[in-house]
Design goal:
12 strands; 7-stranded parallel sheet; dTDP-glucose 4,6-dehydratase activity; NAD(P)-bd_dom; 369 residues; 3-stranded mixed sheet; Rossmann fold; NAD; 11 helices; alpha/beta
């Protein structure tokens, strides 16, 4: 099968001896940097590369928090800007005033349950927002890397070990908006030779995730001695990557990834949702050997629930990325973080996510059309 997103203008630059030359950014615009994954990438870049200038743009929707990055506010190589990626004048201003040469685009609406009830806001944030960034970057003309963060859900959830050239077959409104954003990226790469790299990641878990996703929500409920929820019978499978490993993947992709490339970022270890929650129960010290489901409540399944997302990450591993945090250690770390109630204060409305089927209705200003 031919590649869906074939390399354009080639390839990574090579030195005089033919070896690959890593890309070195100077000034990075990182959208969604006060969110879960984005904040960990910001932390890595600011600490590891003090000579890089990192500009964070985030509108602080319900699942983001300024406290995710505020410990870094005293760093001279970080600039924080609260704003919306759909604001063309703001994006234009930041690109020019900060001399941006690299965009890392994490900002997105991501919760599948929410997308069934607020699908137009997902299109506005994920598709229109991405298009605004691309058009601003095209007109600006000085972007050397545009890393678009997509998801494994664009593949659909029925086939095994999807490769980067597999056909996209999204099944829920969230995944459809991410696939649509990818297609716009592809158009800009083809038509305008934009230096775009796309990533598609497995489920990510760890500290700082708003507790409406399975692992984070289960950890918070269990910390309160309340049962965690399972959709359906719990046999749906997911592959999980700990958030610091995901941040390391973006470090590798930005510096060593090929322009025009797509990179899967995934784990080889697959877990059913029931296994995930039972592992959270065990790490929380609540396991009852006589009743493994003592702290589990089974609820109605969501409207559409893909069975699994198995992806092949061998292409990324060839660049040097490996998972370092085991599932067992990652779950212990995550449970410990959510046990500290002070960490939850960054989201004043976090209890809204602690329900079987969370829905975040879009506010009027979240939809621009």
């Amino acid at each position: 099968m031919s590649s869906y997103f074939a390399p354009l203008n080639g390839h990574h630059p090579t030195g005089p001896n033919g070896t690959l030359q890593p890309y070195t950014p100077k000034s990075i615009l990182l959208t969604g940097g006060a969110g879960f994954i984005g904040s960990h990438v910001v932390e890595l870049l600011v600490n590891r590369y003090p000579h890089y200038h990192v500009v964070v743009l985030d509108k602080l929707d319900y699942c983001a928090a300024e406290q995710n990055i505020s410990p870094l506010f005293d760093r001279p190589n970080l600039r924080w800007c609260r704003g919306d990626i759909r604001s063309r004048c703001l994006v234009d201003y930041l690109l020019r005033s900060e001399n941006i040469d690299t965009i890392m685009h994490f900002a997105a609406s991501t919760h599948v349950d929410n997308s069934f009830h607020s699908s137009i806001s997902f299109t506005s944030n994920n598709v229109v927002g991405t298009h605004v960034l691309l058009e601003s970057a095209r007109e600006y003309g000085r972007i050397k890397r545009f890393i678009h963060v997509s998801t494994d859900e664009v593949y659909g959830g029925e086939t095994d070990f999807e490769r980067e050239d597999s056909v996209m077959a999204p099944t829920n409104p969230y995944a459809c908006t991410k696939a649509a954003a990818e297609l716009i990226c592809r158009g800009y790469a083809k038509s305008f030779s934009m230096p775009i790299i796309i990533t598609r990641g497995n489920n990510v878990y760890g500290p700082r995730q708003y507790p409406d996703k399975l692992v984070a929500k289960s950890c918070v409920l269990l910390s309160q001695k309340s049962p965690a929820y399972i959709h359906g019978n719990g046999d749906h499978c997911r592959n999980y990557v700990y958030v610091t490993d995901m941040a390391e993947a973006f470090d590798v992709i930005m510096h060593r990834g090929n322009v025009g490339g797509v990179y899967n970022v995934g784990s080889d270890e697959e877990k059913t949702n029931l296994q995930v929650v039972r592992d959270c129960v065990r790490a929380s010290g609540l396991q009852d050997p006589s009743n493994p489901n003592a702290y589990i409540t089974f609820v109605k399944d969501r409207e559409v629930n893909d069975h699994h997302y198995r992806i092949d990450s061998s292409k990324l591993k060839k660049l040097g990325w490996t998972q370092k945090v085991s599932w067992e250690q990652g779950i212990r770390n995550t449970v410990a973080w959510y046990l500290d109630e002070c960490n939850l204060e960054r989201w004043p409305d976090y209890k809204r996510g602690l329900v079987a089927h969370p829905t975040h209705k879009a506010a009027p200003d979240e939809v621009l059309f």
